[in-house]
């Protein structure tokens, strides 16, 4: 059976940048938050741009800079918590916009922080099964559209963007995966209203309330219990990374890059200390973009590749967050075309 590989990887982010100090919150509090999170600026998508737009921009970079063409694609996987429409999913948008053949397999997945790893995993399965030869994986989010303007806890760290990966056969070394999911914690990072369980209702779900930390949000806005998410991450991410390292037969110091979900500098640095990783191999890449969700792993890899004189080879990717969920994987990127970040 064919061994899947990541043939190409790209990312796209909004071209406009907003300094965190210009968001209108208390100056001293903002400075303390910036020191903790490491985020100095965020990139918000305009209201007329969606995750599909940024993923299409990233995918177009792949087709422009590799020998692969849209007509070669026979599978599409789109991962986002915020699709353009309630249904059908964004894979339909990608297929029609790029002119990908109609005889293709399409999947849409409602994942956020773990989305890139889940997307590649599903593409790997399609290639391994022989059902697809070339799968386009798209992962993106425009979370800023779903935040309250006065929610300083999220507004100072969340950004927008998208990524694309081309998964094909021909790999020399199998990619390995590890997953963990605790649905009991789903309300630690979610949007309460807007779905079937709690439909939007004027005068009920759109009423702003102020919490103990003076963050303002409605039931229609995204909510995060930062302390609970942090506890979950520190308990459950290291074992998943250890598991994929063991499955690949890699020692920690044999890995060229650990692309961790770029939630904030505090979480990334805490994982580095807890796992005793070489900090030069674990980039923090959200200082000028903010946390762009599942695509943050691809963004970190694109920036890391641009800074290196040699190709990336052994890589560990780990997403964590909403669910509460963890997804980790290993990949040999020695032959992967890792592209420069595009702006839209």
Quickly give the structural class: alpha/beta
Low-confidence stretches: none
In total, the number of strands is 17
Q: Provide a count of the helices.
A: 8
Order of helices and strands: EEHEHEHEHEHEEEEEEHEHHEEEE
DSSP helix fraction: 25-40%
Separation of termini?
39 Å
Give the CA-based shape: globular
> On the 0-100 scale, what is the average pLDDT?
96
Sheet with the most strands, sense and barrel status: 7 strands, mixed
CA-atom Rg in angstroms:
19 Å
User: How much β-strand is present in the residues?
Assistant: 15-25%
Provide a quick synopsis of the model.
This protein is α/β, with parallel strands linked by helices and 344 residues long.
SSE blueprint:
Elements: E1 4-13, E2 18-19, H1 27-37, E3 41-42, H2 51-65, E4 75-79, H3 91-98, E5 105-109, H4 115-129, E6 134-141, H5 152-155, E7 161-169, E8 176-181, E9 189-190, E10 209-210, E11 216-217, E12 223-224, H6 226-248, E13 257-260, H7 265-275, H8 296-307, E14 314-321, E15 325-332, E16 337-338, E17 342-343
Parallel strand pairs: 1-16, 1-17, 4-5, 4-6, 13-14
Antiparallel strand pairs: 1-7, 2-3, 6-7, 8-15, 9-12, 10-11, 14-15
Notes on the protein architecture:
The protein has 344 residues and is of the alpha/beta class. It is 29% helix and 23% strand. It has helices at 27-37, 51-65, 91-98, 115-129, 152-155, 226-248, 265-275, 296-307, and strands at 4-13, 18-19, 41-42, 75-79, 105-109, 134-141, 161-169, 176-181, 189-190, 209-210, 216-217, 223-224, 257-260, 314-321, 325-332, 337-338, 342-343. It starts with a strand and ends with a strand.
């Amino acid at each position: 059976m064919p061994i899947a590989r990541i043939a190409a990887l790209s990312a796209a982010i909004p071209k406009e940048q907003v300094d965190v100090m210009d968001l209108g919150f208390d100056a001293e509090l903002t400075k303390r938050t910036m020191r903790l999170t490491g985020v100095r600026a965020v990139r918000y998508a305009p209201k007329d741009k969606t995750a599909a737009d940024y993923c299409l921009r990233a995918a177009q970079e792949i087709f422009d800079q590799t020998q692969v063409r849209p007509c070669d694609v026979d599978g599409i996987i789109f991962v986002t918590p915020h699709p353009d429409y309630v249904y059908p999913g964004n894979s339909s948008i990608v297929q029609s916009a790029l002119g990908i053949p109609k005889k293709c397999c399409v999947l849409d997945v409602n994942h956020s922080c773990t989305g890139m790893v889940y997307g590649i995993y599903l593409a790997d399965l399609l290639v391994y099964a022989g059902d697809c030869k070339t799968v386009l994986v798209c992962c993106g989010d425009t979370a800023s559209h779903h935040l309250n303007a006065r929610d300083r806890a999220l507004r100072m760290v969340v950004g927008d963007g998208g990524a694309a990966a081309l998964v094909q056969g021909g790999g020399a070394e199998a990619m390995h995966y590890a997953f963990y999911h605790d649905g009991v914690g789903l309300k630690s990072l979610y949007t309460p209203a807007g779905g079937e369980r709690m439909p939007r209702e004027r005068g009920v779900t759109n009423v702003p309330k102020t919490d103990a930390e003076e963050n303002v949000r409605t039931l229609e806005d995204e909510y995060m219990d930062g302390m609970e998410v942090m506890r979950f991450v520190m308990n459950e991410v290291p074992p998943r990374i250890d598991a994929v390292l063991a499955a690949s037969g890699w020692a920690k110091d044999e890995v060229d890059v650990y692309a961790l979900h770029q939630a904030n500098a505090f979480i990334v640095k805490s994982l580095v200390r807890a796992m005793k990783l070489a900090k030069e191999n674990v980039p923090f890449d959200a200082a000028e973009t903010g946390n762009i969700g599942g695509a943050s792993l691809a963004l970190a890899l694109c920036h890391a590749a641009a800074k290196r004189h040699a190709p990336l080879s052994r890589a560990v990717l780990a997403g964590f967050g909403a669910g509460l969920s963890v997804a980790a994987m290993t990949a040999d990127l020695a032959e992967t075309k890792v592209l420069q970040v595009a702006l839209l």
